[in-house]
Structures
1.
Amino acid sequence: MRPFPCIVHYVFKALALVFGISMAHNCAHDYVPASHDHQSLGCRPSGWISAGPGGVPAAWWWLVGAVVAAWLLRRTRLALASWFIIVLVLGLWRTAAWQEQSDRFVALIGQNVDLQGIIADDPTAGDNRQMSYKLKSLTLLDKTTGKTVAHLPGTITIYSYASALQRGYRLEVTGTVKHGYGNALVSMSYPRMTILDTKQSELEQWRQHFFAGMRTALPEPVSSFGLGLLVGIRALIPNNMQTELALVGLSHLVAVSGYNLTIIVRAVERSLGRFGRGITLNVNLWLISGFLIVTGASASIVRASLVSVLSLVAGFYGRRFPPLALILLTAAATGLYNPGYLTDLGWLLSYLAFFGVLILAPAIEARLGHPKLVVVRLFIESAAAQLLTLPLILYFFNELSIVAPITNLIILPMVPLAMATSFVAGIAGSLLPIWCGWLAWPAMLVLGFMTNIIDAFAALPWAGTQAHLSLIGMLAVYGIIIALIILLNTTNRRAGRPTQAPTNRRRLTEVAVS
């Protein structure tokens, strides 16, 4: 039998890992932690892969058998099935271990506890003077003696009154642990809070200084919008502007994506390309690492960073990733790192948009003969990303933006210039506050124009509407989209149309697979 191409093995293994994590998640959702009796886990992954004949976990019997089969049947089609089982069991095992750690938090629900932890993200100011943030590096304390009882993995979401808190502060909170909202496992509402330490790392101090410099150089809401474009943190955007961005279909501008990182990568390549590929690669890797630290390792940011790193390393060695392989490999890697990502709505929306940009948009462009006009290509790319995310948005949020194609067509081409001028304004406000007004006027001009456009479209009575898709309807729409992609690729291949545009017509995001 002919051996399978190497990339097929990668795709199948990544798909098996994602499937294993998803299956374990679905089984875990059937479990209701009422008694915390681990003898009655039922379909819980940690229960049905942890017992087997002779005291050996059942998963290990499957794993050993699959490894033996893969070795005996190597370089055949049947070996692919064996590897599928191997990686599937790995996904189940990783999710079971992660779920066991989560149970330690679930066991605290309903109890009044003392916790110490460090603020993991930028506190978000909500309505009614409410603030929310997450605590990490958690320590459970004895309420009587104050001694450490246990160190807890993961994070807890805290809802409190608005106060001057920043990322990196160490707090002690006392309150009742409750079920979390959305993807948060547990939460605590309006606990008694004590600030133990306000010392921050030098990087965090520089980060806060840059944020203050941006607000010195630019007025609100322009300064917050500029920060949102640069670091992709929605918490920095005022609530009314967040509502407008969602209404006109531009929320993705203030969420770090492959587009943001691609702009940075391309700027470095153009600036340092003449010094050699090695220097360019190292600078890009350091910038991506710093970007992860500055923005926080949320699900969508981890995805975007991993895609960029894989693409840069592959390009350095003269290789390329097919788009589908890149999507599945990064999904498997992020899922293995944190199985909770697969139920994170931001992660799902990020990957759906990624799929639209790298799979659907090139198929449409190839069908149209790779249009020369940049505006047309941006419109296709934006429309493809929105088409892939729309069914999920309608299912969860019941919101449909009518003006999104128009606003994206107007705003997206200005994003690179807005990021560059915002960075200059932030540096000027940090280092030269007296002269920052002169150095920040380009940013004020670009960002002011963008915010005025957003305000104008958001004020239209027909800018958005309420619509809903059921689960069956959502799955049916995605089935139609997948069928459309297969049809487009089949007709393009039969007609001999090139899948990639000429070099002088490449989209910014196409650097990920070229």
2.
Amino acid sequence: MKNNNRFKRSALRAFFGLGIATIAAIVAFCYPFLLKNALVVVKQEHNELNMTGKQREVLIDELSKGNYALPLLYWREHGNTAQPSDLYLQNMNESSDPAQQAKDKDFQKKFNKMISSWEGSFISDGPYATVGRYGMEYMVYYHPSQEMSTNSLKHLDQFAASSMIGDKQLMSQFAFYAVIRYKSDGTMTIPAWYGMEEKWKEKIMRDHLKRTTFYERMEEMTSALQGPFDLRPALMSIQNPADFTIFYGLPRETYADPGSYERSEMNAFATSGLGTIWLSAAGAAALLGIWAAREFRRNRQRVLQDNQVSVTGSETLPRLPLEFWLAGVLLPLVGYRMFAGWSYHIAQSEAGISTLLPSLYAWLVWLVLLGFWFGLAKVLTEAVQEGFSASIQRRSWAIRAVNWTKKSLRQSIAWVHTFDPADRSDHFLIKMAVFHFALMTILILLAVYIGYYALALLLLYGIVLFIKAKMTKDRLQRAYGQLHAAVQSMAEGSLELEWAEDVQVFEPLKQELQRVREKVKQAVEEESKSQRMKSELITNVSHDLKTPLTALSTYINLLQQPQITDEERNTYIAVLATKSQRLNRLVEDLFEYTQASSGNTAFTPIQVDVVELLQQAHVELQAEIDKSGLQLRFMLPAHKVFLPLDSEKTFRVFENLYLNMAKYSMPGSRAYIEVDDTEQDVRVTFKNISEKELDFDTAEITERFVRGDQSRHTEGSGLGLAIVKSLVEIQNGTFTIEVDGDLFKAIIKWPKA
């Protein structure tokens, strides 16, 4: 059975561990999908480029120029000295009309000059040039030769021949970039665009289709040979670059705030679904922790039932403090944006063997984080099951630290309060502190004037201090010796310990030793008294049991005589019945007292009216009281007096007190029963005049088998008042006896609260 329970616990732990690992694996598996959404969000962030709308419009115009200038620049760097018209106006010289040919040559001249100026704007670093003004980086890639021309140092060549543009790398380096591609037929596409709104991308496309860039500069190409409308056919004959990819980029460090892209990554990954997945995974781990707490608790209860043992506390509660689990749960919540950025970079790892380690790292991190949620839910659930307040106080280091601090503060405050300047020892400490401070101050001041000669005074002070300390030590040693001798004397049994000499700091200990001596003497006296009472108990029990037993034996012998008459036989039987009843009552009283004094008697409290119970006991014992000739006087409140008492045992208390008055009161005298109802308690008093002289000790009259009739000629067990005392005390009351001359008073007091 034990091995079976151990196997179940191990299986539960493995199951819940596998559950946490599965949740972590699902979250890590979602990373590529989250990254895809995050890239879309990042690309839609257009507020990083710190340019106004007018500045953006001018920049777009410069890019439209660069689409023609940069391919020309590429040819120049690769040894081609052709003019711009040779590249972009290849069909203009086909006319046979001399006038048209003159116009075409004039247009070519103007066109070459304009394109060359655009080319110079990208070559020059001057403040009015495009590159110099914007710090723009560019790259021109020619597809047939797979060669490029660039002014960038950021390895843009890795994107040139690729059909997929590396958005992740480009966005981390540029606040704005655009990739413009010209196919072999001159068709323009823009496969990559980041940093500006889509409307600017659409403007470049419109300018390309409508030749807007050239129409806006028509005046530059107009001459006396041509009118403004004669240029339209020439402009429409301009060809686009072919088989070129052009990259434009504005550096992030110039056109974006520091860290803005990192913030964009964090925000993008957080808003792409990581928050929802994180909350779902944490909730699943917490639910798994709650379920784990319940399952482990049920398993522990089954083990306890099988083994029939009882333990307190939880065997499944982690030993780690509550703050450990809280810190692990709150850490990713407090640093959520940093966690999202870390997740973003982990998610950028492409699938493959080389990225297996980052993926495993991400899975382990999620496993740990979800484990914290699992553990916290388990700890809190078990705390609720066992008692939240006590469990948290036991497992929280912070609460322990607060309690320790409070305790230390209370001790410090108590120490300050116990420091009494009027006390001789404390007064001495104050004087010594002031004296040494003053002396050290004087020596330091003297050292300023007399230099090292002050060491002689310091040496003299050290000698005096040594002598004083030696004398103090001798006095303390003598005082300690006296105390040690006194303790040895007490250990040997001598309780006569008296000395008047002052033992200085040991004076409180001396006082305590004297108190111990008094307590030991009192205990010895109590023990002697107990031994004496035990002897009296044996004597009294023997006497009280011997008398009825002797009578029973005597009358049984008489009944066995053959010559007795019927009248004598009836008389003897009546005596036997009386003696047997007395013996039976004595044994019952002894049994009842033993139960009451040992605490084994059952106590069932109900709301009892004390006044009514007193009157009921009086009615039932009326015959016994009338036989004694006693006259009762009652002084009872007019209202009911309710107390939480056991009615049967309280009735026995009143019965014993009534019978005690009936047996020992002076015949024909008056007895008084009083009930005093106050705010704090209820007091019941029985007062009567004793027939015999009251010469006993009131402290002993309630002991076992002690009777006021020390000659023990009257009937009674001597247990009546002892039973009353025990039954009253088990009901949280007190019972006392007072004697004033021949006036006997029995007083019961029950508190109301």
3.
Amino acid sequence: MPLPPAPTKRAALVNTEAFDAPAKTRPTRRSSEQEELTQRETLHPSLDGFDRSGGGELHEELMEPEILQRTMPSSTKKTSIQTRTTSKPKKTKSTGPIKLFVLDTNVLMHDPMCLYRFEEHDIFLPMIVLEELDSNKKGMTEVARNARQTSRSLDALVAHHHEADITTGIQLNGTGHREVGGRLFFQTQPLHFTLPSSLPQGKADNQILGVVEALRAQYANRPVVLVSKDINMRVKARALGLLAEDYQNDKTLEDGDLLYSGALALPHDFWIKHAKSVESWQSGSQTFYRLSGPIVPELHINQFVYFESPGEPSLYARVTEIRGKTVVLKTLKDFTHLKNAVWGVTTRNREQNFAMNLLTDPEIDFVTLTGTAGTGKTLMALAAGLTQVLDDRRYTEIIMTRATVSVGEDIGFLPGTEEEKMGPWMGALDDNLEVLAKTETSAGEWGRAATNELIRSRIKIKSLNFMRGRTFLNKYLIIDEAQNLTPKQMKTLITRAGPGTKIVCMGNLAQIDTPYLTEGSSGLTFAVDRFKGWPHGGHITLARGERSRLADFASDVL
């Protein structure tokens, strides 16, 4: 089959009518058009059809029109060209100057993958950073493991560097991270710098500051930025006139107020705008509503919506289906009524009712609860767990664990077995079991004692230290004080779930006791954000405390 003439436009915008045109053979046509394409490539190096993440040589070859037509069957030419034309890049790169980031040791030991988080920018590692990595690699702590992982990553990058001269920089995408476009530079020669005499020259932090000062003078045409998790280090750098930033990639959210709350208030004119387009039907004791409108893009699966207006009936529902521009809402079970009490516990406000609907739904495998002290997180989780373990026989037992981070000074080693060592950390469990035991009043003292013994036999207390490698089958797992967990620890716990297991994560993001963790980088925030919209997961933020008026007032003013 004769070849059609090469188009005058670039391949991503080729006219499909050119395929039906008769072939014309011109010896000089190919060379002249190739020169034109070469000039166009030089003037416009960033083509829309050029995928940098998949390797440059293959796509540059395919961008040539005649080779593009030879490599595709005639029946698929039109479809493939249209696909390449309408495809959008996943991520737009910044158009500013390429920066040179100098990494502090604590960044590498905080996130071993930080080398691949700076996109097209370059990274510089002072020699003192490598020395500190070497001195912190021993031990079984997470910091030591991260230091060893960073050393292995650096070794792999150096091994893939085929050039003899390392001073030109090492490509960071050499080990398969195609999204990275920068280079890694090591300090290969002494750098001359001048710092104030009041700063001790032998301290590692001051040596890193000196390297940043020398690089700023050496590369005056590009920004040189220090990246450190140490606040004092950043303050000293800014006092010396140097650019310094915190490592932001570990933060799930910049502001804790942006965290997904799990509930959405419908506007007051909701029924006026949607009355004609709403479909409703009954199934059992629940009512379903199908509606469409501008509110649909704002909703997520298992998100709660409520409508409260004076003089009008209230609506409390949960999103069960989102299909195109329509959404299906399902009304909730009212756990505020005594007839629907869970282990004798009734909910006292709107958010508690939302949470109890998630805790008692067998289709929900993962529940996250956040809220201030006294909002009823532990009590509701235990009540729902006891009902589903002892009454419904849905799960075999309750497993409760928490991060053992003390508020004050540590009291030292604790004697006894694993459960005895975890006993002092489980005061919240004992307090809530005491409340739940009082709900049974008809059995007498002997009956309550037997019930307490049965409850204790179905609740197991486990430590986080021994969770790796385990698999929980048909268990009801409660993770208390989850705000003190790192995202890596949270992933370790959630991946322990086997068939039929439900996990409940609870915590108060305003009470983080773990060093180096904030509201934005907490494992609880990480889990809430990642599981948002999953059909088998749900989240609710409890708004009002129900412990006592004293606790509520203290939460607000202290």
4.
Amino acid sequence: MSPFFILSGGNQPSSNPVHLAKGRRSRDYVMFVLPIVFGAVSDLTGIWTSCFMVLFALVGVALAWMHIAIRQMEQKASGIDARSLPQFPEMAGLHDETRHAAAQPSKVLAEWKPEDPDFWETTGERIARRNLYISIPALLLAFAVWMVWSVVVAKLPQVGFAYTTDQLFWLAALPGLSGATFRIFYSFMVPIFGGRLWTTLSTASLLIPAFGIGYAVQNPQTPYIIFLVLALLCGFGGGNFASSMSNISFFFPKARKGNAMALNAGLGNLGVSVMQFAVPLIITAGVFGALGGAAQQTAEGGQLWLQNAGFVWVPFIIASSLLAWFGMNDIADAKASFAEQAVIFQRKHNWLMCWLYTGTFGSFIGFSAGLPLLAKQQFPQVDVLQFVFLGPLVGALSRAGTGWVSDKWGGARVTFWVFVLMMLGVFGVMYFIQAASWWGFLSMFIFMFFMTGVGNASTFQMIPNIMRQEVPRLMPELTPDAALKQAEKESAAIVGFTSAIAAYGAFFIPKSFGSAIAATGSPMAALWGFFIFYASCAALTWFIYTRRGGLLHDIERGRTPAPAVQPAPLKGAAA
């Protein structure tokens, strides 16, 4: 079968003269259009290797189209359950029912009861862990692509891009704006489409900004508007967090949910630090050869392959997408329409947790986006890119490693002290900026990153506990089992939605630094604003949740019996 036939969208060859004539016309059309498309793309980007990206996309779409068409044809002809078929028709002969068990539609879990200790120990834990282990690298790549502009903008002036400080801060901030907006929609996608399909598609979508950045930075004449669009497209990575956390929340029982979500989020957040550490190293060598493009000359006479900041993620994104498709599962009971999930907009605690999570995760992702450029602006004599990755690294590891603290002491109590200590951290940053102390400045930001990690885990630990108290009160007509399922669905939706709102910190924090510096020549005004915000978060946590009479006061101190929907604890719940 010729490439021209595939690109023309044909499903199978035919000897019919009419079909042959149509095939020739399609071939001629492709031969006419492709050179025009290649020329237009080359003229637009100024980079001849951009033609490879167009051809890669065309062949990928054609192969996917052909594969889907063949599978649909075989399924209609056989009349059997599509889920029982192998992933590729060519693999059908590899399965022998006399030697293997009959094929089962195992990708969709028709029955999922993680709160049942017997089910969890015999079946559930193995499946849940597999989905978690596949989700973590996909989320890590999402964070890496989302925040890649925080490093790229610091290098653009060195390779000939004459942008102002405010323009650079805009490029650092826009991925946060689009990522937060995407999260609002992504938070509802898993119950609609299923975690397996959505994780695959959302991870594969990262290829668009990864390729785009790789080509755009090679030409100093690339219009600023192209960079703005690419910065917005990096928000695909930001949106992935909401759907990933929502998906993983369905797999684990309450006793292990906090630790599982802390691992998924914390090691996923590690993508920021991995990116900020790896990109400054990989842009110093032409690791992709001729396909990666030529080096850019720096003002100091050196060479940089800034395109590697985008290209380096491509093979990992492809591998992670395939792993998600072939290795993850959907949970049938987790299906829900948008209308069913929209009930969370009537829950006041949804909006209160949005405020608190903005203080923790919003700070983590906002500082990650803004710190490299802020540090470079405040301490131009220091090669800040050698050190700033430490902040996100500490924040991600603290989130992954401190979930047990909230499980032991209570998420609300931990959250309150997190905000008190972050207020002290802001004072420390202001002091060391005035003292012109780089190491003091860096240590205070690392301290605040650590506290954001602890707070990220503690706020997410609060959400299931809150909804397990609220659902029986708000919906007394539900049976205990129905109330438990409703609480789980609402908790998953709230987790996704709060992460969406909090992600706007990735826009507002770097933009606040840029606006404060443009207006006053100093970031102090922005820092005072952060201090006031953290004070409001501490006051809200104390008044609503932790004071005597607060919603979680007695529960976190073990003074009340478990709610009606609370199942018996599992063995090893502290793991």
